[in-house]
Amino acid sequence: MPDPPEIRILGLGHFPEVTPGMDLPALILAAAAAEHVAFAPGDILVVTQKIVSKAEGALVDLRTIEPSDLAARWAAAWDKDARQIEVVLRESKRIVRMANGVLITETQHGFVCANAGVDASNVAGHDTVSLLPRDPDASAARLRAALRAALGFDLPIIISDSFGRAWRYGIVNVAVGVAGLAAVADYRGRTDAHGYVLNASILAVADELAAAAELIMGKLDGRPVAIIRGYAYEAAEGTGRDLLMDPSRDLFR
Amino acid sequence: MPDPPEIRILGLGHFPEVTPGMDLPALILAAAAAEHVAFAPGDILVVTQKIVSKAEGALVDLRTIEPSDLAARWAAAWDKDARQIEVVLRESKRIVRMANGVLITETQHGFVCANAGVDASNVAGHDTVSLLPRDPDASAARLRAALRAALGFDLPIIISDSFGRAWRYGIVNVAVGVAGLAAVADYRGRTDAHGYVLNASILAVADELAAAAELIMGKLDGRPVAIIRGYAYEAAEGTGRDLLMDPSRDLFR
Prior knowledge:
Two copies of one chain form a homodimer.
Chain A: E1 6-12, H1 24-34, E2 44-48, H2 49-56, E3 59-61, H3 69-78, H4 82-91, E4 92-99, E5 102-107, E6 112-114, E7 128-130, H5 136-151, E8 157-163, E9 172-179, E10 185-186, E11 202-203, H6 205-217, E12 225-229
Parallel strand pairs in A: 2-8
Antiparallel strand pairs in A: 1-12, 2-12, 3-7, 4-5, 5-6, 8-9, 10-11
Helix pairs in contact in A: 3-4
């Protein structure tokens, strides 16, 4: 550890408009080279969901969508695009809240977020929306494997998206896909400096890493990838699902 | 901006056990000197709630607490300390959920969190618990004023605590007090690279900064303060209250 201990967050720009079928690992390696960044063991890569979804073709042309009656009524009541609402409903397993023009659902993956992660921002084409990757952990695993093959060492991957929260205003970046690191740090049973045994401290570190990455990514800065360097992560086969509250313990279903 | 753009998170240890009445700004300046860190304009200081509460004497000796019947029943049912439950109830404005041994309340400040922020970890004395600071924004403002007087320039302050979330597993650091920076970054009305006007992007950047700081603070590493260097914050009179969802818009009361 240097004195003081330090974590660095580096932002990678230099990405083209990502389109379906593009080789995302190659784009990331090219972006790093353009920024004169050499990946190093210990680095963590945070990649925004948007470019993953674009590369995987998780895009919907709204001109192909026929809204259901429910979608049409909701859209009319709240001045929304009925086709986009229809896509939200199709991506949803369960409606959590539908009020005040806000549509919060549980996605097919189990994420609870606004609009099932369907988003029209930072997408080319006026009638196109992006979806969350079909399986963000699998997306992260593929990226990890491709980068390991290219680099010769392991880089943990976090795929991030910005979600709203209950009770708190504003959205924050969270981890939707994880590969190569523990998504949580479990301190239960460990003893603090005063001899107190911690009993409730499970830190969602992958979410904190995703949040940290957002600070350099921004929403309009064209930096869809961040490198986090110097964080003592636990190498493990963590997943984005590790960050979902077990429904049987969730008091806010 | 360097190439690539970079944010650094530095952790400050070298704190004594903080006790009521201690001069927190002096302790922070001493810790920085011990780590050979010179504060610089542009730095943001994240300070964990625990040392703020200790310095302010926001501690309760449980031996002085007479539990109410409700506290005693709940504690007996779930194997908790009835005196600590009583303190939680006293710190609460409203019970949000009380089930499965979990007590989630709205604090007097308006925060929704487990146990009203009452916590026995990292506190000296087996019968002592810490409370959230009475007014975390005021605590942040005092720290900001004292450090500005000492340093000759402004350092924005975030006071952080770790809160659980609905739907997601694990706790994350959030901002409970803020001074000298905008707590949110409001992108509404701005246009992305594809000409799409963002309509829902309000980033809770103070929460993301708090989360980033936790990565270096840890729970057991004795680093209660982090410096975030290189983040292009908006200098403004933001507050921790800016991060609370307006009750009239909160679908998860």
